[in-house]
Design brief:
The protein is of the alpha+beta class and 454 residues long. It is 37% helix and 18% strand. It has a domain at 252-286 and 293-318. It has helices at residues 28-37, 40-45, 62-73, 80-85, 90-96, 104-112, 116-136, 139-142, 199-209, 230-237, 253-261, 324-331, 334-347, 358-382, 392-400, 424-434; strands at 22-23, 148-158, 168-169, 175-184, 187-193, 219-223, 243-248, 271-273, 276-285, 294-301, 310-316, 404-409, 412-417.
Length: 454
């Protein structure tokens, strides 16, 4: 007899309590513990210009405001209003060491008080954190085939309202802010929101600033067609990457004529991909803005029912070892990098800048980038191999949204975390290794975290 499963009414009775001793975000203790491991709170407090107060003895410290925004983003919040609502969760605030949450007006005023220099230092702090996490992670989790994968991309964040500073009309006629980002492995290494006039200027600045991360080692740089102008290709070629490839689909007329002139014998063995037969060859061409010929990997195919070849081109380094087909196969992995950009935008809901001021939005996105990298570091440094495919939203949903209850007894304060059976041992090991325990009779601000088998 086959089992029949259906939706029925629950048999439970419901009882509501309002003791103020429970939270649905007990997993935020992991975020706090990881930030303490890297001394992020102390380093935020030391950032010059981050504190605009004239009287430092009152109000909210800058690291407390930054922590409030980071905890908001890593618990599923998306706005300054959500950050204000964090103040209603007294157990969460106490569990992560926040005395009081600021309202959204205070948060907005603090973001608007930032300067270009303080935002730059926030971005530098994020870059330093990402580099430290990269150095501590297992190479198999942050490198592809032993290579550090560096990816640059530019996206547009559509905004509404004519008063949003820095917004410009895009090709579709919509107002948008340009957001450029440089990735190193799974980490968002550096970013710029609407600060550069051109994508080329931003890429050159970010790549030059962080060149020490990949120089002397195995690395692969990937970018889309926004980075394909001649001058920028020359800059990429001299940036110290072991390998690099850039999509080239804007000025393909001369390349298509050169490719059409190549005899069939130079196109190599055919390969099948998605039901279409493709062949590959090298093409040399000097784009405008370059002083010498650039090497391009070319791919040609003829769709069924058509009489003319179609072509695709990828600019790359001159390599006598790699075949043009291998260049395309490696470059197509750029899709995984683009997916990470989509992840940070969607999972943290960064499609909506919170302020009208460009400087305030840049400060917010710098902190959001740091929050995303904290989640990524938690994954690559501490989670198991089977959990390395988790997105940011999966980490928030399955690891950080954990019910917790505050219990006070005999002058001891305990936070009881309700852990799923499959994660209980992982939590036990993490807390034993990274969270300080209080000795009996010892006064300390650190919480006491027991792990119970109840």
């Amino acid at each position: 007899m086959k089992a029949h499963h259906r939706k029925r009414k629950t048999r439970y009775e419901f009882e509501l309590t309002g003791t103020g001793r429970a939270t649905a975000h007990g997993g935020q203790v992991l975020v706090d513990a990881l930030c303490r491991r890297f001394r992020l709170w102390e380093r935020l407090a030391a950032v010059p210009g981050l504190d605009p107060r004239k009287r430092k003895g009152s109000g909210h410290d800058p690291e407390a405001l930054a922590a409030q925004l980071i905890f908001t983003l890593t618990s599923g919040g998306v706005s300054l209003a959500d950050a204000e609502r964090l103040g209603a969760d007294a157990v969460l605030l106490e569990s992560v060491g926040l005395e009081k949450a600021a309202d959204q007006t205070t948060l907005g005023e603090w973001l608007r008080s930032q300067t270009d220099e303080s935002v730059r230092l926030l971005c530098k702090l994020n870059s330093d954190f990402a580099k430290e996490a990269l150095a501590q992670a297992k190479p198999s989790r942050v490198r592809h085939g032993g290579e550090l994968e560096v990816f640059f991309d530019d996206t547009e964040i559509e905004v509404y309202g004519k008063k949003i500073e820095g917004a410009r009309r895009n090709y579709n006629g919509d107002l948008a802010l340009s957001w450029q980002a440089l990735w190193a492995g799974p980490f968002l290494l550096d970013q710029e929101l609407g600060g550069f006039a051109t994508v080329a200027a931003c890429q050159e600045a970010l790549v030059a600033e962080h060149a020490g991360l990949w120089e002397g080692g195995k690395s692969c740089f990937l970018a889309d067609s926004g980075s394909s102008e001649g001058r920028l290709l020359g800059h990429t070629a001299g940036a110290g990457f072991s390998r690099w490839s850039v999509s080239y689909n804007k000025w393909t007329g001369p390349l298509e004529r050169l490719a059409a002139q190549k005899p069939d014998g130079e196109w190599g063995d055919p390969a099948e991909r998605n039901g279409v037969t493709e062949t590959y060859a090298w093409v040399l061409h000097t784009p405008e803005g370059m002083a010498q010929a650039q090497t391009f990997a070319a791919c040609r195919w003829m769709p069924q029912g058509e009489m003319l070849w179609r072509y695709a081109f990828v600019a790359c380094e001159k390599d006598s070892v790699r075949e043009p087909r291998a260049v395309f196969e490696r470059h197509r992995l750029k899709g995984a990098c683009e997916q990470r950009f989509s992840e940070v935008l969607s999972d943290l809901d960064l499609h909506h800048p919170p302020c009208l001021s460009l400087t305030a939005n840049r400060a917010f996105y710098a902190l959001a980038t740091l929050a995303y990298n904290v989640l990524t570091a938690l994954k690559v440094l501490d989670l198991d191999d089977g959990q390395q495919s988790w997105r940011a939203r999966s980490i928030i949903r399955h690891l950080l949204t954990i019910p917790a209850t505050l219990v006070c007894h005999a002058n001891r304060r305990r936070l009881k975390l309700c852990i799923p059976a499959g994660l209980l041992n992982w939590w036990r090991l993490f807390l034993a290794k990274f969270v300080p325990r209080r000795k009996r009779g010892e006064g300390t601000d650190e919480a006491y975290w027991p792990v119970l088998n109840e």
